[in-house]
Design brief:
mainly alpha, 494 residues, 66% helix
Length: 494
């Protein structure tokens, strides 16, 4: 095949695979929370399988650009720095996956769950290498981490490529009118994310008011009352955590579309032709949902996020009227949520004033710290806390906990200081990646609100377990991929 034929072949198939990647990514964003947050066996495997498919599509796309002369049209600006942050983040990702893979090969024990408790089947293991005390749990974790890593890099790659319409506008010179316009792919992703999360909040509110005992009126969870659920999540705090990631992002998206609408344009815009005010309704509904979910940590984080959002947008707005309007919208959403939650919410906060155990968390923390001392370097193995926790109880009648309720501490226990350092290093690389080579143009205030959503879920991880829930973990990574790809709005077309 001649050189021109290779380029044509590469262009044709790259665009087909790129379209498939976008469809799978958007499907995953919608699906992930609705299958009980990805906590059910079938929904977890759908998420894993979709992540693997995204990874394969990304590998095929990379191969086409590597072995043919075709290069996709991406968002770039003059003076783009070297790609060393990308290679460092990739290297850290591979090292963390390698640690989990070695622990599987060097597994210390397999576990049989019986009616009498846990039976450990010990195996020979190299003492100075990473290991795991629950082969099956760590194997499932490895499959999921591999899918999540593929999803992050596939999402970033998809967002960096211009849409067909944007390519055509660049060819015929119409892109000179696009300065300040939200890129198509960011637009599609954020509209879907905002509406989907608003629907989760609405369903949660209706289910809470209805009082039905089954999750989503269809999934029976005998040990969980209606007040413990919210939307598709069996645990109300996880629902609040998911929403707290998204609503600052939806607000940032609203701001970007508002700034876009204020651009001078030669084309007349008919009345009602801008849909972005609907995003404020979505944000209000999400904030109301957090209050009705009655998660104390969720409400606290939401209030902090509101304060930060007011600082970011209040500083950018001109005049007091829009600032008061935004603050008033938050107050109305809070008041509506408080009214719908009723006496239950008041009782929750009253109990927190007299509960010195933090709903039993202090006991879990004491046990968890002992576990961390026993597995300091490599940890006990990914997602082995549930298995080992029962062995550290001081009495047989004490509760066997599945989570630490502190994801930072659980990560240190199961991955050790080495894995924990890798995770922290990856988090620190996100802003570096964004600042050095972020090219997808969007308003500065919108980027800051994206960061508020990411920091919010990291704060949730201090006293709860959002990253043990597949849909929240996945959402964090997709939003992180968007954040890392964003750059400033240029003064002229790129």
């Amino acid at each position: 095949m001649e050189r021109g034929g290779f380029a044509s072949f590469g262009r044709r198939w790259h665009r087909r695979l790129d379209t498939a990647s976008g469809a799978l990514l958007l499907f995953l964003l919608v699906f992930a929370p609705w299958g009980a947050g990805g906590t059910l066996v079938w929904s977890s495997w759908v998420i894993i399988g979709t992540g693997w498919a995204l990874g394969l599509l990304l590998a095929f796309k990379w191969s086409l650009t590597r072995f043919t002369s075709f290069q996709p049209t991406c968002w770039r600006r003059e003076g783009t720095a070297s790609r060393w942050p990308v290679w460092i983040l990739m290297g850290l990702t591979i090292l963390l996956l390698l640690q989990v893979a070695v622990s599987l090969w060097n597994a210390r024990a397999e576990v049989n769950w019986t009616q009498d408790g846990v039976e450990f089947l010990y195996r020979d293991a190299v003492s100075w290498l990473p290991t795991t005390y629950d082969l099956a749990a760590t194997r499932k974790a490895f499959f999921r981490y591999l899918a999540f890593a593929a999803t992050f890099w596939a999402a970033r790659d998809w967002l960096l490529i211009k849409s067909s319409a944007e390519r055509h506008r660049e060819v015929d010179g119409r892109d000179r009118d696009d300065v300040g316009r939200v890129p198509d792919r960011v637009r599609w992703l954020l509209w879907i994310l905002s509406f989907n999360t608003a629907a989760i909040a609405l369903v949660g509110i209706l289910h809470r008011l209805d009082g039905d005992k089954d999750l989503l009126w269809s999934i029976t969870l005998p040990s969980m009352p209606n007040t413990g659920m919210f939307g598709p999540y069996p645990y109300r705090a996880n629902a609040a955590q998911f929403i707290n990631v998204v609503w600052p992002i939806a607000l940032g998206f609203w701001w970007a579309l508002r700034q876009e609408a204020l651009r001078p344009t030669e084309k007349p815009i008919r009345a009602g032709g801008r849909a972005y005010p609907m995003l404020l309704l979505c944000v209000a509904l999400m904030v109301t949902g957090v209050i009705v979910a009655a998660s104390r940590g969720g409400i606290a984080i939401a209030l902090v996020e509101m304060g930060l959002a007011l600082l970011v947008l209040g500083n950018a707005m001109k005049g007091w009227r829009p600032r008061l309007a935004m603050a008033g919208a938050f107050v109305v959403a809070l008041a509506l949520g408080w009214g719908l939650a009723g006496k239950f919410l008041s009782a929750r906060f009253e109990n927190s004033l007299v509960d010195e155990t933090l709903a039993g968390r202090t006991e879990i923390f004491d046990v968890a710290r002992k576990m961390g001392e026993d597995f300091p370097v490599w940890g006990s193995g990914a997602e082995t806390f549930l298995t080992l926790n029962g062995l550290y109880r001081s009495g047989a009648r004490l509760r066997w906990h599945g989570y630490v309720h502190d994801d930072w501490l659980e990560t240190r226990i199961t991955f050790g200081w080495v894995g924990f350092a890798l995770v922290v290093a990856m988090l620190l690389m996100l802003p570096v990646l964004k600042l050095r080579i972020g090219t997808v143009p969007i308003q500065r205030e919108s980027t800051l609100l994206f960061g508020i959503g990411l920091i919010g879920v990291l704060a949730h991880g201090r006293l709860d377990f959002p990253f043990q829930i597949p849909s929240i973990h996945l959402m964090f990574l997709v939003v992180a991929a968007v954040f890392a790809a964003l750059g400033p709005v240029p003064s002229k077309p790129q």
